[in-house]
Amino acid sequence: MSDGRTEIERPLSPHLQVYRPMLTMMMSMTHRVSGAALAVGFALLAWWLVAVSSGPESYADVSAFYGSIPGQILLFLFTWALIHHMLGGVRHLIWDTLHMLDKTSIEFLAWATIVGSTVLNLALWICGVWLKGSF
Fold this sequence. Notes:
- This protein is mostly helical.
- The protein is 76% helix and 0% strand.
- It is built from 4 helices and no strands.
- It has helices at 23-54, 56-67, 69-96, 103-132.
- It is elongated and about 75 Å long.
- The N and C termini lie far apart (85 Å).
C-alpha cells in the first residue's frame, strides 16, 4: 500500500474571484446592506421617540443633531435605504409570483429598483424641504 495521496482536481468554491460581478449580485448585496442600515436608522428613530417623551430638553438635543449636516446625511441615507429595501422586497414579491424571471426582466427590475429608490428619495426630500419652507 502506498502512503502517497492522489490529488483530485475539484472545482473551486464559488467566490468573488471566480464570478464576475453582475447587477443582480450587487443588488442582493445592497439589499442586505440596506437591511442592516435600517436597523441603525430605526435605532435613531427610537432615540427621537424617547426624546419626545422625555421632555423639551431631550427633544432639543435630538433636534439639534438631526438638524446638523451629519444628522441630515444620516436621515437622507436612512430614507434611501428604507425605499430601496422596500422596492427590493416588491421585486422579490414579483418573482415569488413566478413573473418576470427571464434575464431581461430581471435586469429591468434591478435597474428599476436603483432608479426608483433614488428618484423617490429625492422627491421625498424635495417635498419635505419645500413643505418645511426652507427653499
